[in-house]
Amino acid sequence: MAERKDDQWTKVPMKEQDPQERKNNFNEVPFGYDEEEMLKEANRCLSCKVPMCEKGCPVDVPIKDFIEELKDNNVGEAASIIKSQNSLPAICGRVCPQEEQCEVECVVGRRGEPIAIGRLERYAADWAMEQGEEDVEQAESRGHSVAVVGAGPAGLTAAGDLARMGYDVTVFEALHVPGGVLMYGIPEFRLPKALVQEEIGKLREIGVEFETNVIVGKTVLLDELLDDMGFSAVFVGAGAGLPTFVGIEGENMLGVYSANEFLTRLNLMKAYKFPEYDTPVKVGDKIAVIGAGNTAMDAARTALRCGAGEVNIVYRRTEDEMTARLEEYHHAIEEGINFHWLTNPVEFVGDEDGWLTGMRCVEMELGETDSSGRPRPVPKEGSEFEMETDIAVLALGTSPNPIVPSSTPGLETESWGGIIADEETGETTREGVFAGGDVVTGAATVILAMGAGKTAATAIDEYIREKYDE
Amino acid sequence: MYRILQKRDLTPVTKLFVVDAPMVTKHVEPGHFVIVRADEEGERIPLTVADYDRDEGTISIVVQEVGKTSAMINRMEEGEAFSDFVGPLGVPAPLPESGRVVCIGGGFGIAPIYPIAKHLFECEDVEMTSIIGAREANLLIMEEEMQAVSEDLRVATDDGSKGHHGFVTDVLQQMIDAGEEIDEIIAIGPMPMMRATAEVTRPYGLKTWVSVDPIMVDGTGMCGACRVTVNDELKFACVDGPFFDAHTIDFEESTRRVKMYEKEEAQAYEQFKKSPQCRCGGANNG
Q: How many CB atoms lie within 10 A of CB B54?
């Protein structure tokens, strides 16, 4: 009996690849639940009358309802319920920060560990994907077309929702494959690329068209989409593509990467398969990743898998202020990544040919709270030291890509580059143009971008009905 | 897919391709570049637009074999297609509206200088002089085309097999020494040539533009591989350039940065040359 009680308050653990093994391959780390584990976990759910968890979901997944179906092993039904609100469930089940969204609200979590909503979502989504054939509902056409700029999480979600409402949707993507950060940013071992493409395939099945290699603002202008190409509205989800360089002396040395470049070479261009694939990358023997967000964890763990001997994460604050998900942090520790807290690089040093050989760093201590609400790190006097490194990766955040706003008159931005958009609707300062995701908020999460795509899809529907259907 | 409609041998190692890419022609201007990927395993490489025809929906590019990717592209034939071809990218060339302009093209840099010269030649108030050069006469490309868009065309070869015996910068220096009036210079070619041009014109304060050709991945400002120091400021060649005032660029840094993958490039090229794909008639074909 005692054991059962314990069980009730503890998440059914998910099996994972052994750290020693996985650090040498790009296969996914967690295996997902099997049927028995799923049933056990689903049955921990209390089926609250007022499901608090649903309040935490940016895309309003009917969490209680799908878990109810899982309890009875009606997986197909559970998957349909999720998909009624979420176009990319297999992706969300893997990369959503559930611990700060649905799971943090879970009532069970007040006493023990919350229900593993993410793992259950993944189970249902993967199961449905394995079944393959589904009834594809082609909504009745509403006779209007909508253009989506950017095939990342925000754009894909908006596209899926709009297609289901009966709009003809065309998604324009600058890169050679759709997926955005899901393809170029998040590594294979955290989010298999085949799975991303399968989810995108589902959108094609419901009628969404994808035009890759089209940069809106360069290849075609946003104005042309509205004026010449017959689109009734445009959703801009162009993401936060610009890497941040902070002006550390020696930043342009050979061997210093932005995390964006490092990860794009590896994920999108498959540099880990060089020379079978033509794009090279260097990980060196010793590599330092600067920053402690999810991107930093991704870069560090990827470097390890590419054969780096020593991987160091260098962060000027502490473990408590880092922005990475706990799960990713733990995975990184298990795999043998070293963490250097309260350490700030102030100069990159190199040899006479301009190749990086190390970083001069200073030790920091935490001072008073700054504008981000976190204690400000201040340098300790006389604490300078040099850290040897062959390669350095700057994972210091990204900012919105300016190509769309700078080529679209009347589309206003904040001083830091974010497109100004109404939080409730995604409406921008240009009629018929809606925006959401990182291009509005600056770098955030996949699920928040999806939430914004969803909100905008509803608002676009209202806009078109009002403008044309009267 | 982006089909090759026409292929022309400019030299044994330099080919011109006319590519069917109507979307790209819509807003293309002289000085723009495209990012090209030959096939699914290919890398994304930037190539400057060598010519375009909006009515036909075609973009011309010139590729010189320097490694595996360029070798693979140069073995593609009419009717075959690039898997990706995206653009137009970058900021178009800064085109003066009047005065005497000298366009300098070195090596396969003649290809990207051509549409600029062509445009300027059509400007009534611009007097167009061109200096083109190569290592030797049979590596000199597009001479006829350049002749057709220049009031005055001068040629230099390193070995003296055609025109002036020496560098394009020697010819420029001679023009300056002879007191010829020059208002602006646009130079495209290998990094050492552009750097030398900058040094020739610097003492005279002659406005000089160059187009840098760094390593790129996406070409839209996302990766930062193409960062260039200009006037001590960080710039991305893909979105801020590729044209910069030659007197403000940190050439030493840019020259170093293109060598980042020298070793990997050599490895891939060697492997390619031994493969049947190379069609080199080497070890595999006897």
A: 12
Q: What is the pLDDT of residues B91-134, one digit of tens each?
A: 999 999 999 999 999 998 999 999 999 999 999 999 999 999 99
Residue A3 has pLDDT above 50, yes or no: no
Token pair belonging to B72: 């693979």
Residue partners of B281: CB distance under 8 A and separation at least 6:
none
Coil/strand/helix, residue B35: strand
Give the separation between CA A14 and CA B232, rounded to whole angstroms: 51
Per DSSP, B3 falls in state E
- Digit-coded pLDDT (tens) for B32-51: 999 999 999 999 999 999 99
The residues pairing with A216 across neighbouring beta strands, listed in sequence order, are A220
Say if the Cβ atoms of A219 and B264 lie within 8 Å. Answer: no
Chain A residues inside the 8 Å CB shell of B256: 254, 353-354
Please name the residue that has the structure tokens 């420029």. B172
For A:165-224, CB contacts with B below 8 A are 174-176, 184, 212-215, 218-221
Nearest to A14 by CA among A267, A331, A300, A305: A331
Distance of CA A152 to the CA centre of its chain: 9
**Cα B252-B257-B258 angle, rounded to 5 deg:** 110
Q: What is the pLDDT of residue A133?
A: 62
As a whole number of angstroms, the distance between CA A15 and CA B200 comes to 67
Q: Which of A108, A283, A439 is nearest to B221 (CA)?
A: A439
Q: Give the distance from residue A41's alpha carbon to the nearest chain B alpha carbon, in angstroms.
A: 41
What are the structural domains of chain B? Answer: 2-89 (2.40.30.10), 95-208 (3.40.50.80), 212-276 (no CATH)
- CA distances to A116, A145, A163, A452, B233 from A464, rounded to whole Å, are 39, 10, 14, 18, 45
User: Nearest chain A Cα to B2, which residue?
Assistant: A213
Residues whose CB falls within 8 Å of the CB of residue A382, separated by 6 or more in sequence, listed in order: none
Q: Is A378 on the interface with B (CB under 8 A)?
A: no
Tell me the residue ranges of DSSP E strands in B109-245. Answer: 126-134, 152-157, 164-165, 184-188, 207-211, 227-230, 233-236, 243-245
CA dist., res. B282 & res. B286, Å (int): 6
The answer to whether the beta carbons of residues A128 and A75 sit under 8 Å apart is yes
Angle between helices A117-131 and A63-71 (to 10 degrees): 70
Which pair of structure tokens corresponds to residue A415?
A: 């001083």
Tokens of A352: 């006479």
Give the residue ranges of DSSP H helices in A283-402.
294-305, 326-335
Using CB atoms within 10 A of its CB, is residue A178 exposed (0-12), middle (13-18) or buried (19+)? Answer: buried
Say if residues B168 and B185 touch (Cβ distance below 8 Å): no
Looking at the DSSP bridge assignments, the partners of residue B133 are B106, B156
Q: What is the pTM of this model?
A: 0.93
Q: Indicate the helix (H) or strand (E) that contains A227.
A: helix A222-227
